[in-house]
User: Which sequence fits this backbone?
């Protein structure tokens, strides 16, 4: 958000400079073609940034809702497996059969979030059945478009959610693990997600 505001202010400053030239017709020199090109470009940039800033509150709510659904699902899994030594046998089918999945997320025999994305439970990108000895599990969003990816990868988590999440893997043409520290910090800034997210993405949320 700070980066967007900075870009917005910079665009306004440069636009004002060119506008000042336009406001003094008698004394000003004729604007060059380059000046007109810069003015037009800055106007477009300012308009785009304005649209993004205006849409952020709605986007934040959408992201928060989808993230809360992921954590509600994770909480249900933890509660069910609390008395067991590990998550052996856990997958999407077993979670549905055992009634672990919140009813609001059960649609057409699968798990679907409020963004319309399929959700899978298991291990790894393919959400395979969790094997013996594994003390963690994954919630996988296997078909995530760019917009939804940007929303989720920039979503702000509360302290409780942060403590319950081991990391997030974003897989498209590359595969990157994001966590709370180190080089690849989670969550990303919204401008970072434009580069990190592609048209087709798999997002894997790692829980312990």
Assistant:
């Amino acid at each position: 958000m700070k980066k967007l505001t900075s870009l917005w202010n910079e665009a306004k400053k440069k636009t004002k400079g060119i506008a000042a030239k336009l406001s003094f017709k008698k004394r000003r020199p004729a604007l060059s073609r380059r000046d007109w090109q810069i003015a037009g470009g800055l106007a477009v940039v300012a308009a785009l940034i304005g649209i993004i800033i205006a849409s952020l509150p709605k986007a934040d709510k959408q992201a928060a809702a989808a993230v809360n659904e992921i954590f509600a699902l994770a909480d249900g899994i933890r509660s069910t497996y609390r008395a067991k030594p590990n998550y052996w046998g856990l997958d999407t089918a077993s979670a549905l059969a055992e009634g672990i999945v919140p009813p609001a997320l059960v649609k057409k025999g699968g798990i679907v979030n409020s963004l319309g994305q399929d959700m899978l439970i298991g291990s790894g990108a393919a959400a395979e059945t969790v094997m013996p000895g594994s003390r963690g599990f994954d919630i996988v969003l296997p078909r995530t478009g760019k917009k939804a990816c940007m929303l989720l990868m920039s979503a702000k988590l509360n302290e409780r959610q942060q403590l319950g999440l081991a990391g997030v893997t974003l897989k498209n043409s590359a595969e990157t693990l994001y966590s709370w520290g180190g080089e690849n910090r989670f969550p990303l800034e919204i401008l970072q997600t434009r580069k990190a997210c592609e048209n087709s993405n798999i997002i894997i949320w790692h829980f312990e």
Remarks:
- Confidence is low (pLDDT under 50) at residues 51-56.
- Residues 58-207 form a domain with the TcpA-like pilin fold (CATH 3.30.1690.10).
